Amino acid sequence: MNQKRKLAISLIFGITILAIPLWLISYPETTFRHNLKPWLIYTSQISGVMGFVLYAISLVLSTRMTWIEDLFGGLDKVYQTHHTIGKIAFFLILYHPIALAARWIPQDISKALQYVLPTHRRLAIDLGSWALLGFFLLMIFTLVIKIPYDKWKLTHKLTGIVFLLFVAHFFLLDELVSANLVLTLYLGLFSLIGVVSFLYKAVFFPWLADRKSYTVRKVDKLNEKVFEITLAPNAEKLSFTPGQFCFFSYQDPSISNEAHPFTICSATTNENINIIVKALGDYTTHLYQTLKPDTKALIEGPYGRFDYKNHNHPQIWIAGGVGIAPFVSWINDLLEESPSSTFDAELYYCVNSKEEAIYIEKFKELENKLPGFSFKLTCADREGFLSAKEIQNYNGKEILICGPKEMRRSLLKEFQKLQIPDNNIHFEDFDFT
Quick check: 112 and 74 in contact, CB under 8 A? Predict the structure, then answer.
């Protein structure tokens, strides 16, 4: 983990823990009846405040702002943090009503349920219960029930509505607002931050995001599942670093306008850009069957910090399936420029069968042109899956991986057994479960 990311995460939790001393300045007087120790009520209040603050910060992390990506070292790291603090926020918020309800167990179950279900006589508490139920459903669809990406995106847009219910819950509690002005201001600040972040991403993002207009020039079906899309700029050309990805959406009524991420494969000097797509899910399969030249496209980005130039040489590159995309981008760039004499990289390209392999001639071209580059194709149907033991002279080398999570996880376990330092292994990880 880089220093900037460590600092960012420390800052997030430092700001969250600040809720404790702010609460202690003048903790709210309570008239709540309880048959357990007072700390049960007080910890429920503190956990509710801390969970709310983390919820607000998670909304900030979902905005895809460039400065946030720079701070964390990649959009995948931002999303990982968003995912993690979202889970922590949920459990902190969940503890809040459970602790309050526990005061009435076992003597009055109906009163206990009033703090979990929206059946209380006070609107503020009912709003909190509705917010909790909404948050619970969002977490179910994120962590437990897997639904198609486009439908999950729709459910995730409700996070802002749930947050607004939590805001209303807090500020309709007169005992909080009147008892602790400092804590009220603290919560007010994060209410504003969370609401603005939600409105930016859910409402204003299509107008404020930097999106370039392109047109599909060519669709090449490389095999039965993989196809290459060539797009030309309609006005300003996209500027990117080799290995970065963008979110692509197509203006065709027969294709969902939901933006999906794909890595750019072309060299930075090219006027047009290329991406490769594998028909895996409903969207990409439909795209494979439907997308035609002359279709208008909007490209948002670029994102990502997966760049071989950020690491020392020698290097080992490992690609699996369409995970070859960033390496193709690097190779196209290397073919256009004169790389440093210190350049030294081995590419291991893993596919199920030779028929699935793409861009083989391009890899061989670079191998002939650049003495520091070597290429090996590994076909699972002939040689089995790539093992870390098959990689020669890995000591001291930087290892860059892009491919299916099963392949990556298997290799990471093997590298760990071989005592390869984690700092020498680099990949983008959008698998958060």
Answer: no
Q: Where do we find the tokens 């491919």?
A: 403
Q: Is it true that the peptide bond before 302 is cis, omega within 30 degrees of 0?
A: yes
**Helix-strand-coil split of the chain, %, nearest 5:** 50, 15, 30
Angle at the Cα of 11 (from 157 to 423), degrees rounded to 5?
95
- Distance from chain centroid for Cα 412: 20
User: Measured between alpha carbons, how far is 269 from 255 in angstroms, rounded to an integer?
Assistant: 30
Type of residue found at 127: L
Cβ neighbourhood burial of 270 (10 Å; 0-12, 13-18, 19+): middle
Residues forming a β-bridge with 232? 215
Q: Which residue has the tokens 């080799």?
A: 242
Beta-carbon count within 10 A of 97 CB: 20
DSSP state, residue 277:
E
Find out whether the peptide bond into 314 is cis, omega within 30 degrees of 0.
yes
All domains in the chain, ordered by first residue? 3-206 (1.20.120.1770), 211-303 (2.40.30.10), 313-427 (3.40.50.80)
Predicted pLDDT of residue 63: 94
Total length of the chain: 433
Q: Which residues contact 236 (CB under 8 A, 6 or more apart)?
A: 212
- The CA distance from 372 to 375, in Å, is 10
In the three-class reduction of DSSP (H, G, I as helix; E, B as strand; rest coil), residue 306 is classed as coil
Q: 386 with 348: CB under 8 angstroms?
A: yes
Per the CB < 8 A criterion, the answer to whether 74 and 306 are in contact is yes
Give 375-420 as a DSSP string.
EEEEEHHHH-S--GGGS---TT-EEEEES-HHHHHHHHHHHHHTT-
* Residues 375/327, Cβ–Cβ less than 8 Å: no
In 200-248, where does DSSP find H-type helix? Answer: 205-208
Structure tokens at 375: 């290429």
Helix, strand, or coil (residue 253): coil
Integer Cα distance of 222 and 351 in angstroms: 14
Nearest Cα neighbor of 333 from 271, 222, 241 is 241
Mean pLDDT per 10-residue segment, the chain (433 residues): 84 93 70 56 88 96 93 92 94 89 73 70 83 88 74 79 92 73 90 96 87 95 91 93 94 90 90 92 90 95 91 91 91 81 88 88 89 89 83 85 89 89 86 48
